[in-house]
Each structure stands twice: as C-alpha cells, then as structure tokens.
Amino acid sequence: MHGVCPSWLSFILYNPVRKAFTDREKILDESGITADSVVLEVGPGNGFLTEAIAARAEKVLSIELQEGMVRKLKKRALPFGDKAEIVLGDVASTQLPAEAFDVCLLYYSFHEIALKNWAAENIARAVKKGGVVSIYEPSIEVNKTGMRKTLDLFAISGFEKEAERVGIFTRFARLRKK
Prior knowledge:
Number of strands: 7
Strand order of the largest sheet: 3-2-1-4-5-7-6
Number of domains: 1
Order of helices and strands: HHEHEHEEHEHEE
Strand content: 25-35%
Shape: globular
Low-confidence stretches: 8-12
Largest sheet: 7 strands, mixed
C-alpha cells in the first residue's frame, strides 16, 4: 500500500467528529451486512467500522497492513471475542479461505493497495457465490476513471455491479458475485 495513514495518526480515523458525520449503520446496510453475515474487512485501520460490523454480523475477519494499527484494532475488538479476528497482512497475498465470506467491505482502502489485480482475485476467491463486495473510496483521491478501473477488476473476477453512487466525499459501489 502507499499513502496509508500511519498508526500514530490513527486518532483522525477514529474520533467523535468522524463518528458524528459517518453513518456506520448506513454503511453496513448498503453493504448487505446482517446478523448472519461473515464479513471480510480490508484495511480496517484502527477499527472505526470493525466494532460496528462485529456488533451486527456473525463474524468479521479484518486484514490490516500496519502493525501499529493491528495493535490498536485488537484492543478495540476485545469486547467481541472470537466474533472479530484480526490479521496482520496484505489482502493481495494473505491466504484466505475459499468462498467463506458473505460480504467483503473495502472502506477507503482499495485505492491504497499496491497489487490491486491480485487483491481483487484473492477477494473473489474468498467471497461466496451470491456474496457482495462493497467499495467506498474517497472522491478526492479516486476519480471516475480510477473507480471504473476498480470495478473492472472485480468484473473480471466474476462480479456484477448492482448499485453505485457518487457523493461529495465518497464514491460507492456494491457488486455481487455471479
């Protein structure tokens, strides 16, 4: 990954202002995360969404690249016990169980992955048939062309777009595995 937020700055990712302006429940709803969902979360940082996912879903596996973020994330996930599993690694090369996940949530993270094609293929193997990849990207960093390239990578891996929107701050797309 490049340009990732260093763990010593993680307070900007998890703070009262961000919590006030980001509707975490809406993100989970748009992503199709239910009480029965097994979720793969890529690039969770220090757990801004992880705790909301763990509170709602059956299980969440969060893959984070930075050791400092993993330490913070593990502390935040403690109350959820084995409902929240934290893995230090890169989604492009981490061995994931085949067809194990109902939803893969990429919240402001896919644009930072160096080996995007490998990451998309690995995620595609891990998501069940009929499962969802939910992608949120910052509009400032990911333009229309960049988002199109991301969606094309997942289309090649067997996903069809079923929802898309562009807001002032965020580009969103939900794709379903054929």
